[in-house]
Design brief:
The protein is α/β, with parallel strands linked by helices. The chain folds into two domains: about 1-140 and about 295-315, Medium-chain alcohol dehydrogenases, catalytic domain (Quinone Oxidoreductase, Chain A, domain 1), CATH 3.90.180; about 145-275, NAD(P)-binding Rossmann-like Domain (Rossmann fold), CATH 3.40.50.720. The protein contains nine helices and 18 strands. It has helices at about 35-40, 90, 135, 140-150, 170-180, 190-200, 225-235, 260-265, 280-285, and strands at about 1-5, 10-15, 25-35, 55-60, 75-80, 80-85, 105, 110, 115-120, 125, 160-165, 185-190, 205, 215-220, 235-245, 270-275, 300, 315. The strands form four sheets. Strands 3, 4, 5, 9, 10, 17 and 18 form a seven-stranded mixed sheet that branches. α4 crosses α9. The termini are close together.
Length: about 325
C-alpha cells in the first residue's frame, strides 16, 4: 500500500505492506485525512512513521473477532489520535489522556492515516452518522481540541477572549468558543485568515493594529513560539490565563528561542496547556452544523498527490 512517511529530509511517498491488527485492534480502510499544522511540523521527524492524525475511514477487519467488537465491521469511523496503554498508573487513575506509554497517530511513535490502511485500537473509534460526510468529519479532532480548551477554562462570562493564530486551529477554536461567548476575537497576520474570520462571523483584528494593554481575560495561543507566548502575555490581564494549544518546531538549522517568562511571574498569570479532546461531542457539533469547516479547506488531493504537505488540505485515500 502507499504511505506518506516522515523523515529527516522531509515527507516521502513509499510502498509498505498492509498493517496487521493485534487483539483489541482493527484495520481501518482510510477514506479521508485532514492535514494540519501538527502534521507539517511532524514531517521531518525520525524514526519514520506514517503521518496524519485526523483520520476518517471504514473498519475493514478485526484483529480478533468477538461478539462485542463484531458490530464495528463495515462502520465508518473517526479515529482518536491518542493511543493509551490502559495499564499504567495514570490510565488506572483516570488520567489516560496522559498515559505514560501513550503514542499519537502520525506524531509520536505510531503510524498515522496518510496510508491506504491503518491499524488502530477499537477503543479509539467513534462511529459517524451518515449525515456527516468524510470531509467534514475529518475536522472532528480539531473541534475536539477546541472543546477541550473550553472544558479547562471558563469561557462564558469572561469579558475578553483572544485567539492568536494564522491557521485552521485558530479559526476552529474561535468558532467553538464564540458559541459560548460572543466577545471572542481572532488576532492574526495573514489576510487569508482575517478574510476567513470575516466570512465565519468571528471578530478579528490584525496583530499590528492592536495595543498590548493587558486587558484580556483569556488568550489562546495557537502558534506555540516564544514570540507568540510573549505576545499573549502582553495581551492578558494580571492574573489572567494563557492557554497553549501548539508547540511550534524551530526552523531547520535553528534552535528554539528562549521565552521570557518574567511577564508570567510578574503578572501572576495562569498558563494552561491544552491537548486533544472528545470526539463524540465534536461529531455532535458537526452534525448540528454548529462549526463551519468546509470553507476552511484550501485544497483536496489524492494520496499520491499530497506532497508537499500543506495545512488545510483534505487527502482522499
Amino acid at each position: 500500500m502507499k504511505v506518506i512517511v516522515s523523515g529527516s529530509r522531509g515527507p516521502a511517498l513509499i510502498d509498505r505492506p498492509d498493517p496487521a491488527a493485534r487483539d483489541g485492534e482493527c484495520v481501518v480502510r482510510v477514506k479521508s485525512v485532514l492535514i494540519t499544522p501538527t502534521d507539517v511540523r511532524s514531517s521531518h521527524r525520525e524514526p519514520a512513521i506514517a503521518l496524519g492524525h485526523c483520520v476518517i475511514g471504514t473498519v475493514e477487519r478485526l484483529g480478533a473477532e468477538t461478539p462485542a467488537n463484531r458490530t464495528w465491521l463495515g462502520k465508518r469511523v473517526a479515529v482518536h489520535p491518542v493511543v493509551r496503554c490502559g495499564t499504567c498508573d495514570r490510565c488506572l487513575g483516570g488520567l489516560s489522556a496522559h498515559c505514560r506509554n501513550r503514542t499519537i497517530l502520525g506524531v509520536e511513535g505510531r503510524d498515522g492515516g496518510l496510508a491506504e490502511r491503518l491499524a488502530v485500537p477499537i477503543a479509539n473509534l467513534t462511529a459517524l452518522p451518515d449525515a456527516i460526510d468524510d470531509e467534514r468529519a475529518s475536522f472532528a479532532v480539531l473541534i475536539g481540541e477546541a472543546l477541550e480548551a473550553t472544558r479547562q477554562i471558563r469561557v462564558d462570562g469572561k469579558a475578553y477572549i483572544t485567539v492568536l493564530g494564522d491557521d485552521i486551529v485558530a479559526l476552529i477554536t474561535a468558532q467553538v468558543m464564540t458559541r459560548l461567548n460572543a466577545a471572542v476575537r481572532v488576532i492574526a497576520r495573514q489576510p487569508a485568515t482575517l478574510a476567513a474570520a470575516e466570512k465565519l462571523g468571528v471578530k478579528h483584528r490584525h496583530a499590528d493594529e492592536i495595543g498590548r494593554r493587558g486587558d484580556q481575560d483569556v488568550v489562546v495561543d495557537c502558534v506555540g513560539t516564544a514570540e507568540s507566548l510573549a505576545f499573549a502575555s502582553a495581551l492578558v490581564r494580571s492574573r489572567g490565563t494563557v492557554v497553549l494549544k501548539a508547540i511550534a518546531a524551530p526552523a531547520a538549522g535553528t534552535t528554539a528561542a528562549a521565552a521570557d517568562l518574567s511577564p508570567i511571574v510578574l503578572g501572576e498569570l495562569s498558563v494552561q496547556g491544552s491537548f486533544y479532546g472528545p470526539l463524540p461531542e465534536a461529531i455532535e457539533l458537526l452534525g448540528k452544523r454548529a462549526v463551519e469547516v468546509t470553507s476552511l479547506i484550501e485544497r483536496r488531493v489524492a494520496l499520491d498527490a499530497a506532497l508537499p504537505l500543506r495545512s488545510a488540505t483534505v487527502v482522499r485515500c
